[in-house]
Amino acid sequence: MNQVDNPMVRFENVTKRYGSHTVLDKLDFEVAANEKVAIIGPSGSGKTTLLRMLMTLEEIDDGIIYVDGEPLTHMLDGDRLVPANRKHLSRVRAKIGMVFQHFNLFPHMSAVNNCIVAPLTVLGLSKDAAYERAAELLDMVGLGDKLDHYPGQLSGGQKQRVAIARALAMRPKIMLFDEVTSALDPELVGEVLKVIRKLGDAHDLTLLMVTHEMGFAKEFADRVCFFDQGKIAEQGTPEEIFSAPTNERTIQFLSAVLETG
Amino acid sequence: MMFEWDWNYTWEILPILGEASLVTLQATLLGFVLAAVLGLAFALLRMSRLVYIRWITTAIIEFIRSTPLLIQIFFLYYVMPEFGLTLDAMTAGILALGVHYACYCSEVYRAGLDNVPKGQWEAAIALNLSPYATLRNVIIPQAIPPVVPALSNYLVALFKETPLLSAIAVLELMQTAKILASESFQYTEPITLVGLYFLVFSLISAALSRQLEAWLNTRHGGSR
Ligand SMILES: Nc1ncnc2c1ncn2[C@@H]1O[C@H](COP(=O)(O)OP(=O)(O)O)[C@@H](O)[C@H]1O
Ligand SMILES: [Mg+2]
Protein backbone atom coordinates (compact mmCIF):
# COMPACT_ATOMS: atom_id res chain seq x y z
CA MET A 1 0.00 0.00 0.00
CA ASN A 2 2.88 2.39 0.67
CA GLN A 3 4.55 1.75 -2.69
CA VAL A 4 2.55 2.33 -5.83
CA ASP A 5 3.65 1.83 -9.43
CA ASN A 6 2.56 5.11 -10.94
CA PRO A 7 1.74 7.37 -8.04
CA MET A 8 -0.31 10.48 -8.73
CA VAL A 9 1.51 12.22 -5.89
CA ARG A 10 4.93 11.41 -4.53
CA PHE A 11 6.84 13.17 -1.77
CA GLU A 12 10.46 12.14 -1.79
CA ASN A 13 12.51 13.00 1.25
CA VAL A 14 10.66 16.29 1.70
CA THR A 15 11.70 18.60 4.50
CA LYS A 16 9.98 21.81 5.52
CA ARG A 17 11.25 24.21 8.14
CA TYR A 18 10.00 27.46 9.56
CA GLY A 19 13.12 29.07 10.91
CA SER A 20 14.73 26.47 13.12
CA HIS A 21 11.47 24.57 13.56
CA THR A 22 11.35 21.48 11.34
CA VAL A 23 7.71 20.89 10.48
CA LEU A 24 8.12 17.98 8.08
CA ASP A 25 11.23 15.85 8.35
CA LYS A 26 12.39 13.83 5.32
CA LEU A 27 8.87 12.82 4.46
CA ASP A 28 8.21 10.02 1.96
CA PHE A 29 4.60 9.79 0.94
CA GLU A 30 2.77 8.41 -2.07
CA VAL A 31 -0.78 8.54 -3.29
CA ALA A 32 -2.06 6.34 -6.12
CA ALA A 33 -4.24 7.70 -8.89
CA ASN A 34 -7.89 7.85 -7.79
CA GLU A 35 -6.96 6.96 -4.27
CA LYS A 36 -8.82 8.66 -1.42
CA VAL A 37 -6.53 9.42 1.47
CA ALA A 38 -7.66 10.79 4.81
CA ILE A 39 -5.01 12.57 6.84
CA ILE A 40 -5.59 12.75 10.56
CA GLY A 41 -3.46 13.79 13.49
CA PRO A 42 -3.08 16.30 16.27
CA SER A 43 -3.01 20.03 15.66
CA GLY A 44 0.42 21.29 14.60
CA SER A 45 1.56 17.94 13.21
CA GLY A 46 2.09 19.36 9.71
CA LYS A 47 -1.09 18.25 7.90
CA THR A 48 -1.93 21.65 6.47
CA THR A 49 1.70 22.24 5.54
CA LEU A 50 1.70 19.01 3.54
CA LEU A 51 -1.28 20.13 1.45
CA ARG A 52 0.05 23.67 1.07
CA MET A 53 3.37 22.43 -0.28
CA LEU A 54 1.53 20.31 -2.82
CA MET A 55 -0.56 23.35 -3.84
CA THR A 56 2.73 25.33 -4.17
CA LEU A 57 1.60 27.75 -1.46
CA GLU A 58 4.75 26.88 0.51
CA GLU A 59 8.22 26.22 -0.78
CA ILE A 60 9.98 23.11 0.37
CA ASP A 61 13.44 23.18 1.91
CA ASP A 62 14.62 19.80 0.76
CA GLY A 63 13.48 16.85 -1.32
CA ILE A 64 11.23 16.67 -4.36
CA ILE A 65 7.49 16.45 -4.90
CA TYR A 66 6.27 14.62 -8.00
CA VAL A 67 2.80 14.98 -9.46
CA ASP A 68 1.40 12.69 -12.11
CA GLY A 69 4.83 11.38 -13.05
CA GLU A 70 6.70 14.68 -13.29
CA PRO A 71 8.46 16.83 -10.73
CA LEU A 72 6.40 19.72 -9.36
CA THR A 73 8.93 21.53 -7.23
CA HIS A 74 11.70 21.00 -9.76
CA MET A 75 12.17 20.81 -13.48
CA LEU A 76 14.65 19.24 -15.83
CA ASP A 77 17.48 21.37 -17.09
CA GLY A 78 19.23 19.00 -19.46
CA ASP A 79 19.38 15.93 -17.23
CA ARG A 80 19.67 17.87 -14.00
CA LEU A 81 16.79 18.76 -11.70
CA VAL A 82 16.71 22.46 -10.84
CA PRO A 83 14.13 24.39 -8.80
CA ALA A 84 10.98 24.98 -10.83
CA ASN A 85 10.33 28.37 -12.37
CA ARG A 86 6.90 30.03 -12.37
CA LYS A 87 5.91 28.67 -15.74
CA HIS A 88 6.68 25.12 -14.73
CA LEU A 89 4.89 25.48 -11.40
CA SER A 90 1.88 26.91 -13.12
CA ARG A 91 1.73 24.09 -15.67
CA VAL A 92 2.03 21.27 -13.15
CA ARG A 93 -0.17 22.76 -10.47
CA ALA A 94 -2.98 23.01 -13.02
CA LYS A 95 -3.58 19.36 -12.10
CA ILE A 96 -4.31 20.25 -8.50
CA GLY A 97 -7.27 21.97 -6.88
CA MET A 98 -7.69 22.96 -3.25
CA VAL A 99 -10.55 23.73 -0.89
CA PHE A 100 -9.73 25.74 2.21
CA GLN A 101 -11.02 25.66 5.76
CA HIS A 102 -12.23 29.26 5.50
CA PHE A 103 -13.59 29.02 1.92
CA ASN A 104 -11.60 31.98 0.52
CA LEU A 105 -14.36 32.74 -1.95
CA PHE A 106 -14.05 35.99 -3.89
CA PRO A 107 -16.58 38.17 -2.03
CA HIS A 108 -17.13 40.60 -4.90
CA MET A 109 -18.21 37.90 -7.32
CA SER A 110 -21.44 35.91 -7.48
CA ALA A 111 -21.27 32.13 -6.99
CA VAL A 112 -21.21 31.52 -10.72
CA ASN A 113 -18.55 34.19 -11.33
CA ASN A 114 -16.39 32.65 -8.63
CA CYS A 115 -16.49 29.47 -10.71
CA ILE A 116 -15.98 31.22 -14.05
CA VAL A 117 -13.04 33.51 -13.47
CA ALA A 118 -10.29 30.88 -13.63
CA PRO A 119 -11.64 28.83 -16.57
CA LEU A 120 -12.07 32.10 -18.45
CA THR A 121 -8.67 33.63 -17.78
CA VAL A 122 -6.50 30.52 -17.35
CA LEU A 123 -8.04 27.90 -19.61
CA GLY A 124 -9.26 30.42 -22.16
CA LEU A 125 -12.79 29.02 -22.25
CA SER A 126 -15.46 31.12 -23.93
CA LYS A 127 -17.93 32.95 -21.68
CA ASP A 128 -20.70 30.57 -22.65
CA ALA A 129 -18.65 27.43 -22.15
CA ALA A 130 -17.33 28.65 -18.78
CA TYR A 131 -20.83 29.61 -17.66
CA GLU A 132 -22.24 26.27 -18.70
CA ARG A 133 -19.52 24.40 -16.85
CA ALA A 134 -19.97 26.52 -13.72
CA ALA A 135 -23.75 26.16 -13.75
CA GLU A 136 -23.44 22.40 -14.14
CA LEU A 137 -21.02 22.13 -11.22
CA LEU A 138 -23.05 24.41 -8.96
CA ASP A 139 -26.05 22.25 -9.78
CA MET A 140 -24.03 19.16 -8.89
CA VAL A 141 -23.22 20.60 -5.45
CA GLY A 142 -26.90 21.44 -4.95
CA LEU A 143 -26.71 25.18 -5.61
CA GLY A 144 -28.34 25.34 -9.02
CA ASP A 145 -30.73 27.98 -7.66
CA LYS A 146 -27.98 30.18 -6.15
CA LEU A 147 -25.88 31.04 -9.20
CA ASP A 148 -26.26 34.79 -8.76
CA HIS A 149 -25.91 34.86 -4.98
CA TYR A 150 -22.87 36.54 -3.50
CA PRO A 151 -20.82 34.74 -0.82
CA GLY A 152 -22.20 37.15 1.77
CA GLN A 153 -25.69 35.85 1.03
CA LEU A 154 -24.77 32.18 1.52
CA SER A 155 -24.45 29.97 4.58
CA GLY A 156 -21.09 28.44 5.46
CA GLY A 157 -22.07 25.09 4.02
CA GLN A 158 -23.22 26.74 0.80
CA LYS A 159 -20.01 28.76 0.56
CA GLN A 160 -17.92 25.65 0.96
CA ARG A 161 -19.91 23.92 -1.78
CA VAL A 162 -19.30 26.90 -4.09
CA ALA A 163 -15.60 26.61 -3.24
CA ILE A 164 -15.66 22.93 -4.24
CA ALA A 165 -17.42 23.75 -7.51
CA ARG A 166 -14.93 26.54 -8.16
CA ALA A 167 -11.97 24.18 -7.77
CA LEU A 168 -13.61 21.48 -9.90
CA ALA A 169 -14.24 23.96 -12.71
CA MET A 170 -10.52 23.78 -13.47
CA ARG A 171 -10.85 19.99 -13.99
CA PRO A 172 -8.05 19.00 -11.60
CA LYS A 173 -6.84 15.43 -11.28
CA ILE A 174 -6.10 15.90 -7.60
CA MET A 175 -8.29 17.63 -5.02
CA LEU A 176 -7.01 18.77 -1.66
CA PHE A 177 -9.37 19.38 1.24
CA ASP A 178 -8.01 21.05 4.36
CA GLU A 179 -10.46 20.63 7.22
CA VAL A 180 -13.21 21.91 4.99
CA THR A 181 -15.94 21.33 7.57
CA SER A 182 -14.11 22.67 10.62
CA ALA A 183 -15.44 26.21 10.27
CA LEU A 184 -19.02 25.08 9.78
CA ASP A 185 -21.91 24.87 12.20
CA PRO A 186 -22.51 21.17 12.96
CA GLU A 187 -25.80 21.04 11.09
CA LEU A 188 -24.06 22.18 7.88
CA VAL A 189 -21.27 19.58 7.90
CA GLY A 190 -23.40 16.87 6.32
CA GLU A 191 -24.22 18.75 3.13
CA VAL A 192 -20.53 19.34 2.40
CA LEU A 193 -19.49 15.77 3.18
CA LYS A 194 -22.25 14.57 0.89
CA VAL A 195 -20.69 16.51 -1.98
CA ILE A 196 -17.23 15.09 -1.25
CA ARG A 197 -18.69 11.60 -1.16
CA LYS A 198 -20.19 12.26 -4.58
CA LEU A 199 -16.75 13.26 -5.89
CA GLY A 200 -15.25 10.07 -4.52
CA ASP A 201 -17.78 8.08 -6.53
CA ALA A 202 -16.70 9.82 -9.73
CA HIS A 203 -13.48 7.74 -9.74
CA ASP A 204 -11.32 10.04 -11.79
CA LEU A 205 -10.13 12.17 -8.90
CA THR A 206 -7.35 11.64 -6.43
CA LEU A 207 -8.46 12.98 -3.07
CA LEU A 208 -6.36 14.07 -0.13
CA MET A 209 -8.31 15.28 2.83
CA VAL A 210 -7.19 16.53 6.18
CA THR A 211 -10.13 15.94 8.47
CA HIS A 212 -11.36 15.65 12.01
CA GLU A 213 -14.49 13.84 10.88
CA MET A 214 -13.41 10.37 11.92
CA GLY A 215 -16.72 8.77 10.98
CA PHE A 216 -16.45 10.14 7.47
CA ALA A 217 -12.79 9.16 7.12
CA LYS A 218 -13.63 5.64 8.18
CA GLU A 219 -16.32 5.01 5.60
CA PHE A 220 -14.94 7.19 2.79
CA ALA A 221 -11.17 6.79 2.65
CA ASP A 222 -9.18 4.03 1.01
CA ARG A 223 -6.33 4.81 3.34
CA VAL A 224 -5.89 6.73 6.56
CA CYS A 225 -2.58 8.38 7.46
CA PHE A 226 -1.95 9.40 11.03
CA PHE A 227 0.45 12.33 11.23
CA ASP A 228 2.42 13.10 14.32
CA GLN A 229 5.21 15.65 14.65
CA GLY A 230 5.76 15.94 10.92
CA LYS A 231 5.90 12.23 10.27
CA ILE A 232 3.47 9.55 9.24
CA ALA A 233 3.37 7.65 12.49
CA GLU A 234 0.96 5.04 11.20
CA GLN A 235 -1.07 4.37 8.07
CA GLY A 236 -3.37 1.71 6.75
CA THR A 237 -6.93 0.94 5.76
CA PRO A 238 -9.61 2.61 7.86
CA GLU A 239 -10.27 -0.73 9.57
CA GLU A 240 -6.63 -1.08 10.53
CA ILE A 241 -6.31 2.45 11.86
CA PHE A 242 -9.64 2.80 13.60
CA SER A 243 -10.18 -0.76 14.82
CA ALA A 244 -6.67 -1.98 15.51
CA PRO A 245 -4.16 0.86 15.74
CA THR A 246 -0.72 -0.28 16.84
CA ASN A 247 1.12 2.99 17.34
CA GLU A 248 0.94 4.35 20.86
CA ARG A 249 0.35 7.93 19.64
CA THR A 250 -2.43 6.83 17.29
CA ILE A 251 -4.18 5.06 20.12
CA GLN A 252 -3.88 8.11 22.35
CA PHE A 253 -5.08 10.46 19.61
CA LEU A 254 -8.05 8.35 18.61
CA SER A 255 -9.23 7.80 22.14
CA ALA A 256 -8.98 11.55 22.81
CA VAL A 257 -10.85 12.46 19.62
CA LEU A 258 -13.52 9.81 19.93
CA GLU A 259 -14.14 10.81 23.53
CA THR A 260 -14.78 14.47 22.72
CA GLY A 261 -16.09 13.95 19.19
CA MET B 1 -13.14 101.72 6.89
CA MET B 2 -16.55 100.51 5.79
CA PHE B 3 -16.98 97.15 4.21
CA GLU B 4 -18.53 97.67 0.81
CA TRP B 5 -19.72 95.04 -1.63
CA ASP B 6 -20.10 96.18 -5.24
CA TRP B 7 -22.91 94.12 -6.80
CA ASN B 8 -22.51 95.66 -10.24
CA TYR B 9 -18.88 94.67 -10.31
CA THR B 10 -19.81 91.21 -9.02
CA TRP B 11 -22.21 90.57 -11.93
CA GLU B 12 -19.59 91.85 -14.32
CA ILE B 13 -16.83 89.49 -13.24
CA LEU B 14 -18.95 86.44 -12.45
CA PRO B 15 -19.00 85.12 -16.03
CA ILE B 16 -15.25 85.66 -16.36
CA LEU B 17 -14.61 83.74 -13.16
CA GLY B 18 -17.09 81.11 -14.34
CA GLU B 19 -14.96 80.52 -17.38
CA ALA B 20 -11.81 80.39 -15.29
CA SER B 21 -13.46 77.86 -13.01
CA LEU B 22 -13.68 75.51 -15.98
CA VAL B 23 -9.88 75.66 -16.21
CA THR B 24 -9.65 74.92 -12.49
CA LEU B 25 -12.01 71.97 -12.86
CA GLN B 26 -10.10 70.68 -15.85
CA ALA B 27 -6.79 70.85 -14.01
CA THR B 28 -8.38 69.14 -11.01
CA LEU B 29 -9.95 66.29 -12.93
CA LEU B 30 -7.04 65.59 -15.26
CA GLY B 31 -4.58 65.93 -12.40
CA PHE B 32 -6.57 63.52 -10.29
CA VAL B 33 -7.00 60.94 -13.04
CA LEU B 34 -3.23 60.99 -13.42
CA ALA B 35 -2.77 60.75 -9.64
CA ALA B 36 -5.21 57.85 -9.36
CA VAL B 37 -3.67 55.83 -12.19
CA LEU B 38 -0.03 56.59 -11.44
CA GLY B 39 -0.67 56.10 -7.71
CA LEU B 40 -1.94 52.58 -8.34
CA ALA B 41 1.07 51.88 -10.54
CA PHE B 42 3.39 53.09 -7.75
CA ALA B 43 1.61 50.94 -5.19
CA LEU B 44 1.90 47.85 -7.39
CA LEU B 45 5.57 48.53 -8.15
CA ARG B 46 6.18 48.67 -4.42
CA MET B 47 4.87 45.11 -4.22
CA SER B 48 7.24 43.88 -6.94
CA ARG B 49 9.20 40.70 -6.31
CA LEU B 50 12.31 42.56 -7.39
CA VAL B 51 13.83 44.38 -4.49
CA TYR B 52 15.48 47.15 -6.52
CA ILE B 53 12.16 48.03 -8.22
CA ARG B 54 10.58 48.36 -4.77
CA TRP B 55 13.51 50.41 -3.62
CA ILE B 56 13.57 52.81 -6.58
CA THR B 57 9.83 53.36 -6.42
CA THR B 58 9.95 54.08 -2.71
CA ALA B 59 12.82 56.51 -3.23
CA ILE B 60 10.97 58.40 -5.97
CA ILE B 61 7.83 58.64 -3.83
CA GLU B 62 9.73 59.83 -0.78
CA PHE B 63 11.59 62.41 -2.86
CA ILE B 64 8.41 63.84 -4.38
CA ARG B 65 6.58 63.89 -1.07
CA SER B 66 9.40 65.67 0.68
CA THR B 67 9.59 68.60 -1.72
CA PRO B 68 6.95 71.34 -2.04
CA LEU B 69 4.44 71.11 -4.86
CA LEU B 70 5.17 74.73 -5.84
CA ILE B 71 8.80 73.88 -6.49
CA GLN B 72 7.80 70.88 -8.57
CA ILE B 73 5.49 73.08 -10.64
CA PHE B 74 8.31 75.58 -11.22
CA PHE B 75 10.72 72.78 -12.00
CA LEU B 76 8.50 71.25 -14.67
CA TYR B 77 7.70 74.60 -16.25
CA TYR B 78 11.00 76.50 -16.03
CA VAL B 79 13.71 73.87 -15.64
CA MET B 80 12.57 70.98 -17.84
CA PRO B 81 12.97 73.10 -21.02
CA GLU B 82 16.70 73.10 -20.20
CA PHE B 83 16.55 69.34 -20.69
CA GLY B 84 14.63 69.71 -23.92
CA LEU B 85 11.14 69.18 -22.51
CA THR B 86 9.05 72.28 -23.02
CA LEU B 87 5.53 72.14 -21.65
CA ASP B 88 2.78 74.69 -21.80
CA ALA B 89 1.78 76.00 -18.38
CA MET B 90 -1.46 74.01 -18.12
CA THR B 91 0.24 70.72 -19.01
CA ALA B 92 3.11 71.35 -16.61
CA GLY B 93 0.58 72.19 -13.88
CA ILE B 94 -1.54 69.12 -14.42
CA LEU B 95 1.54 66.92 -14.55
CA ALA B 96 2.93 68.35 -11.31
CA LEU B 97 -0.39 68.02 -9.49
CA GLY B 98 -0.91 64.48 -10.80
CA VAL B 99 2.56 63.19 -9.97
CA HIS B 100 2.59 64.85 -6.55
CA TYR B 101 -0.76 63.43 -5.55
CA ALA B 102 0.07 60.05 -7.08
CA CYS B 103 2.53 59.66 -4.20
CA TYR B 104 -0.20 60.25 -1.61
CA CYS B 105 -2.64 58.04 -3.49
CA SER B 106 -0.08 55.23 -3.65
CA GLU B 107 0.01 55.12 0.15
CA VAL B 108 -3.76 54.85 0.20
CA TYR B 109 -3.76 52.08 -2.40
CA ARG B 110 -1.06 50.30 -0.46
CA ALA B 111 -3.21 50.23 2.65
CA GLY B 112 -6.08 48.88 0.54
CA LEU B 113 -3.91 46.19 -1.03
CA ASP B 114 -2.46 45.17 2.35
CA ASN B 115 -5.96 44.72 3.70
CA VAL B 116 -6.93 42.05 1.20
CA PRO B 117 -6.65 38.79 3.18
CA LYS B 118 -3.86 36.37 2.37
CA GLY B 119 -6.45 33.69 1.66
CA GLN B 120 -7.55 35.60 -1.44
CA TRP B 121 -4.05 35.42 -2.91
CA GLU B 122 -3.84 31.75 -2.01
CA ALA B 123 -7.19 30.96 -3.62
CA ALA B 124 -5.92 32.68 -6.76
CA ILE B 125 -2.79 30.51 -6.77
CA ALA B 126 -4.84 27.38 -6.19
CA LEU B 127 -6.94 28.34 -9.22
CA ASN B 128 -3.73 28.92 -11.15
CA LEU B 129 -4.59 32.53 -12.02
CA SER B 130 -1.71 34.50 -13.53
CA PRO B 131 -0.28 37.34 -11.45
CA TYR B 132 -2.00 39.81 -13.78
CA ALA B 133 -5.39 38.07 -13.56
CA THR B 134 -4.99 37.84 -9.79
CA LEU B 135 -4.48 41.58 -9.46
CA ARG B 136 -7.07 42.56 -12.00
CA ASN B 137 -9.88 40.19 -11.04
CA VAL B 138 -9.31 39.37 -7.40
CA ILE B 139 -7.11 41.81 -5.52
CA ILE B 140 -7.68 45.28 -6.98
CA PRO B 141 -11.49 45.03 -7.00
CA GLN B 142 -11.31 44.29 -3.27
CA ALA B 143 -8.55 46.76 -2.44
CA ILE B 144 -10.07 49.89 -3.95
CA PRO B 145 -13.66 50.21 -2.66
CA PRO B 146 -12.59 50.55 1.00
CA VAL B 147 -10.13 53.34 0.17
CA VAL B 148 -12.42 55.41 -2.04
CA PRO B 149 -13.19 57.83 0.83
CA ALA B 150 -9.47 58.42 1.41
CA LEU B 151 -8.91 58.90 -2.32
CA SER B 152 -11.73 61.40 -2.57
CA ASN B 153 -10.18 63.38 0.29
CA TYR B 154 -7.13 63.74 -1.90
CA LEU B 155 -9.31 64.83 -4.80
CA VAL B 156 -10.55 67.72 -2.67
CA ALA B 157 -7.04 68.45 -1.42
CA LEU B 158 -5.69 68.53 -4.97
CA PHE B 159 -8.54 70.81 -6.01
CA LYS B 160 -7.66 73.22 -3.23
CA GLU B 161 -4.05 73.37 -4.40
CA THR B 162 -4.89 74.39 -7.97
CA PRO B 163 -4.37 78.09 -7.11
CA LEU B 164 -0.66 77.22 -7.05
CA LEU B 165 -0.89 77.04 -10.84
CA SER B 166 -1.35 80.81 -10.84
CA ALA B 167 2.37 80.92 -10.11
CA ILE B 168 3.06 79.82 -13.69
CA ALA B 169 0.24 82.01 -15.04
CA VAL B 170 -2.31 79.31 -15.78
CA LEU B 171 -5.58 81.19 -16.21
CA GLU B 172 -7.40 79.27 -13.53
CA LEU B 173 -9.64 80.91 -10.92
CA MET B 174 -6.98 82.47 -8.74
CA GLN B 175 -4.90 83.86 -11.54
CA THR B 176 -8.02 85.30 -13.21
CA ALA B 177 -9.12 86.88 -9.93
CA LYS B 178 -5.69 88.41 -9.44
CA ILE B 179 -5.75 89.90 -12.93
CA LEU B 180 -9.27 91.27 -12.45
CA ALA B 181 -8.34 92.76 -9.11
CA SER B 182 -5.20 94.39 -10.38
CA GLU B 183 -7.14 95.97 -13.26
CA SER B 184 -9.97 97.34 -11.10
CA PHE B 185 -8.15 97.72 -7.79
CA GLN B 186 -11.17 95.93 -6.25
CA TYR B 187 -9.90 92.87 -4.41
CA THR B 188 -12.87 92.08 -2.17
CA GLU B 189 -15.25 90.71 -4.79
CA PRO B 190 -12.98 88.54 -6.94
CA ILE B 191 -11.09 86.98 -4.05
CA THR B 192 -14.27 86.37 -2.02
CA LEU B 193 -15.99 84.80 -5.00
CA VAL B 194 -13.04 82.49 -5.57
CA GLY B 195 -13.16 81.47 -1.91
CA LEU B 196 -16.90 80.79 -2.16
CA TYR B 197 -16.42 78.76 -5.29
CA PHE B 198 -13.90 76.51 -3.53
CA LEU B 199 -16.19 76.16 -0.53
CA VAL B 200 -19.19 75.15 -2.63
CA PHE B 201 -17.22 72.65 -4.69
CA SER B 202 -15.70 71.08 -1.57
CA LEU B 203 -19.12 70.68 0.05
CA ILE B 204 -20.59 69.14 -3.09
CA SER B 205 -17.77 66.68 -3.51
CA ALA B 206 -17.89 65.71 0.18
CA ALA B 207 -21.59 64.90 -0.23
CA LEU B 208 -20.92 62.95 -3.44
CA SER B 209 -18.16 60.92 -1.86
CA ARG B 210 -20.43 60.01 1.06
CA GLN B 211 -22.98 58.74 -1.44
CA LEU B 212 -20.34 56.80 -3.31
CA GLU B 213 -19.09 55.29 -0.08
CA ALA B 214 -22.59 54.16 0.92
CA TRP B 215 -23.13 52.65 -2.50
CA LEU B 216 -19.81 50.81 -2.37
CA ASN B 217 -20.62 49.46 1.06
CA THR B 218 -23.87 47.89 -0.05
CA ARG B 219 -22.25 46.52 -3.15
CA HIS B 220 -18.93 45.29 -1.84
CA GLY B 221 -19.45 44.61 1.83
CA GLY B 222 -19.67 40.89 2.35
CA SER B 223 -17.97 37.84 3.64
CA ARG B 224 -15.65 35.46 1.95
N1 LIG C 1 3.82 30.39 8.31
C1 LIG C 1 4.32 29.72 9.38
N2 LIG C 1 5.33 30.24 10.08
C2 LIG C 1 5.87 29.58 11.13
N3 LIG C 1 5.43 28.40 11.58
C3 LIG C 1 4.39 27.83 10.93
C4 LIG C 1 3.79 28.46 9.80
N4 LIG C 1 2.79 27.65 9.35
C5 LIG C 1 2.78 26.58 10.16
N5 LIG C 1 3.74 26.66 11.11
C6 LIG C 1 4.03 25.67 12.15
O1 LIG C 1 4.18 24.43 11.51
C7 LIG C 1 3.62 23.40 12.29
C8 LIG C 1 2.64 22.61 11.47
O2 LIG C 1 1.54 23.43 11.15
P1 LIG C 1 0.32 22.90 10.32
O3 LIG C 1 0.80 22.24 9.09
O4 LIG C 1 -0.62 24.01 10.17
O5 LIG C 1 -0.31 21.78 11.29
P2 LIG C 1 -1.71 21.08 11.27
O6 LIG C 1 -2.43 21.46 10.02
O7 LIG C 1 -1.42 19.63 11.34
O8 LIG C 1 -2.44 21.57 12.48
C9 LIG C 1 3.02 24.06 13.51
O9 LIG C 1 3.92 23.92 14.58
C10 LIG C 1 2.88 25.49 13.10
O10 LIG C 1 3.02 26.32 14.22
MG1 LIG D 1 -4.28 22.48 9.76
> What general form of chain A does the structure show?
globular
Largest sheet of chain B: none
Q: Structural class, judged by helices and strands of chain A?
A: alpha/beta
Named at the architecture level, the CATH assignment of chain B is Orthogonal Bundle
Quick one: how many beta strands of chain A? 12
Strand content of chain A: 25-35%
Q: Helix segment count of chain A?
A: 9
User: What's the number of extended β-strand segments of chain B?
Assistant: 0
Numbering strands along the chain, what is their spatial order in the largest sheet of chain A?
A: 8-9-10-3-11-12
CATH class of chain B: Mainly Alpha
Number of domains of chain B: 1
Q: Please report the number of helical segments of chain B.
A: 9
What is the succession of H and E elements of chain A? Answer: EEEHEEEEHEHHHEHEHEEHH
Q: Name the CATH superfamily assignment of chain B.
A: MetI-like
Pick out the low-confidence regions of chain A.
none
Describe the main β-sheet of chain A briefly: 6 strands, mixed
Uncertain spans of chain B, ≥5 residues at pLDDT below 50?
none
Structural class of chain B: mainly alpha
